[in-house]
Amino acid sequence: VEIVQEAQQPRVADQDRQIQLTVLAGLGGFACPVALILWWDTRGKRINTPAEVVRTTGLDLLGTVPLVPAKAAKQLHSEGKRYHHWRAIFTESVRGIAARLIRQAKEDETRVVLVTSAFGGEGKTTVASQLAISLAEMGQKTILIDFDLRRPSLDGVFGIENDRGVSEILRGEAKWQQVCRDSGIENLDIIPAGQWSYRGMAVLANGVVGGLFRSLREQYDFVIVDGSPVLPVADTRFVSMHVDGVVMSVLRDVSRMPKVHAAYRTLAAFDAKILGAIVTGNPGEAYYHDPRYTHYIDAADEPEPVSADETG
After folding, report:
1. Which residues have a Cβ under 8 Å from the Cβ of 149 and sit 6 or more positions away?
2. Lower Cβ count inside 10 Å, N or C end of the chain?
3. pLDDT, position 204
4. Where are the domains of the chain?
């Protein structure tokens, strides 16, 4: 007996498996680009550069604040040399914005300034706090008010009590002089948010807020208001009607352009005077930094000697 060909198992199952794999590969090849497009579309709605804010919303760019490493951020107001580079860049960027506010105030008496954002977590409290500190350091008598009544944070930033504050003023339980706190920084006072209640919120639309700001204008060069976000709650919309100007805080790679634009339109509907936007999170290399001038920022640091050929 002669064997012509070895017997083989039927290959139908293998062929079916190959077909399935081919189909799955085709679907994967189609799905991956679609997923990439969707991811890019979502990513593209995040604000990546300050220029996007100006181009899309028409807001003026008041300035940018650098993205500071977490360890350096904790040492911004210390006297050590370790993070001197970041401290110099950060301080000068905020001072530049404060200088614009001072010039604006001389032109049109814009001295009560509300700082807000589209949503929470977009840097508004940091911007408000640092602006107030910078104005105070530049000799402007300044008061910083926590009007983010539902989620206050200035008490934690400055280490002050929050037992009474804006909420008590709104309810008629205290005068602003009774709840004003010393920040520990020359020329800077703080009014915390106090204990929130719906009764206090109900009077936001009446004249109490306007009366408070008028009284503070008589005592201070600048009133900086840390407001709540525009879109989640209505609080800031009412407050915006009683201030001289509004600053929008935008956080690079976090804030979304449609939300920022919606917040801008919302404030405009309340006839708020929007001064412009401050973009936080700009890369440090985007700033002009000359180490020969940093000793003016931190007097505790001795300036390094500069050779004759480096001057100019």
Report:
1. 166, 167, 193, 194, 196, 200, 201, 228, 235
2. N
3. 80
4. 17-44, 50-280
What is the DSSP-derived secondary structure letter of residue 83?
T
Is the dihedral angle over the CA atoms 25, 26, 29, 32 positive or is it negative? negative
pLDDT in tens, 127-175: 999 999 999 999 999 999 999 999 999 999 999 999 999 999 999 999 9
Residue pair 252/280 in contact by the 8 Å Cβ criterion: yes
Strand-pair category, 61-66 with 274-282 = parallel
Long-range contacts of 28-35 (CB under 8 A, 24+ apart): none
Specify whether the CB–CB gap between 222 and 101 falls below 8 A: yes
Count the neighbouring beta carbons within 10 Å of the beta carbon of residue 211: 13
Strands 188-191 and 181-182: antiparallel
Give the predicted TM-score (pTM) of the model. 0.77
What would the pLDDT profile of 182-240 be if each residue is shown by its tens digit?
A: 999 999 999 999 998 887 777 887 778 999 999 999 999 999 999 999 999 999 999 99
As assigned by CATH, the class of the 50-280 domain is: alpha beta
Closest CA to 164 of 181, 184, 185: 181
Indicate the DSSP class of residue 256.
Answer: B
Q: Report the C-alpha gap between 181 and 160 in whole angstroms.
A: 7
